[in-house]
Design brief:
By secondary structure, the chain is of the alpha+beta class. The chain has helices at 28-39, 49-52, 104-118, 130-133, 190-195, and strands at 2-5, 8-12, 17-22, 62-67, 70-82, 85-90, 94-95, 123-127, 146-147, 157-161, 172-176. The chain has one domain (2-195): Gcn5-related N-acetyltransferase (GNAT) (Aminopeptidase), CATH 3.40.630. Strands 1, 2, 3, 4, 5, 6, 7, 8, 9, 10 and 11 form an 11-stranded mixed sheet that branches. Residues 1-6 and 195-200 have low confidence and may be disordered. Bound molecules: coenzyme A.
Length: 200
């Protein structure tokens, strides 16, 4: 693993050289298309989306995998209260179809978890397939008494402590606590700007 710039990590597999960097505003269209392709266009109806509605990801914890400048993977983390315990929810994690099985998903997971730990967060929870996430240390051991605001499969609610004991006694609803996402400013046309009175 070689650091290219401070915020970019280059990783090379035999077949697909890729890099992981902080998400940029210009990634939005490609990221949303990738998520639609990975989870279907009704993905907004999923229970985990209720954690993200109207919120911004946790600061410094949204990452993009790129291959020759193209967005091929994404992962984001979100501030929550897990029954009163400050934690992060991870997701969605997705890698573009043709780029799967090259280790990009694992690299995104390791990068995101390490970054969360470096920022002092105590725990990460997610809703996902245990056979995939177990390899990164996630388990249902301490999430059995937690709930999500909507239907979910109990055996898919997994947790990872970044600080030992951070999820001890976790009980109750997982609710969002992150910053409200800023809305894009309405564009004011040049003509409207010329017609509007100037502020004194
Ligand atoms: C899950 C996903 C992010 C993995 O990305 P990736 O870049 O292929 O991941 P990696 O290359 O690090 O790992 C691939 C391995 O994970 C396995 N894997 C992928 N999804 C899995 C799952 N749901 N359960 C168990 N194993 C899984 C693959 O079979 C492969 O196994 P192998 O190494 O033995 O061949 C990608 O398949 C994806 O975007 N899927 C659609 C969206 C999704 O399901 N996201 C996760 C939400 S639960």
């Amino acid at each position: 693993m070689t650091a290219l710039r401070k915020a970019t990590v280059a990783l090379t597999t035999e077949a697909v050289p890729f890099a992981i960097r902080a998400e940029r505003a210009s990634d939005v269209a490609a990221r949303e298309a990738l998520l639609d392709a990975s989870f279907g266009e009704n993905r907004q109806a999923r229970t985990c989306q209720r954690i993200r509605d109207g919120r911004a990801p946790a600061e410094g914890l949204a990452f993009t995998a790129v291959h020759r400048g193209r967005v091929v993977g994404t992962v984001r983390l979100w501030h929550v209260s897990a029954g009163g315990i400050p934690a992060l929810v991870l997701g969605p994690l997705a890698v573009d179809g043709p780029y799967r099985k090259f280790g990009i998903g694992a690299a995104l997971m390791k990068h995101a978890v390490a970054a969360a730990k470096a920022r002092g967060h105590g725990a990460v929870v997610l809703l996902g397939d245990a056979p995939y996430y177990a390899r990164f240390g996630f388990s249902p051991l301490k999430t059995g008494e937690l709930s999500l605001p909507g239907p979910f499969e109990r055996d898919r609610l997994l947790g990872l402590e970044l600080r030992e004991g951070a999820l001890d006694g976790a009980w109750g609803m997982i609710v969002p606590t992150g910053m409200t996402a800023s809305r894009p400013r309405p564009r004011v046309s040049e003509k409207a700007r010329q017609l509007s009175p100037q502020a004194a």
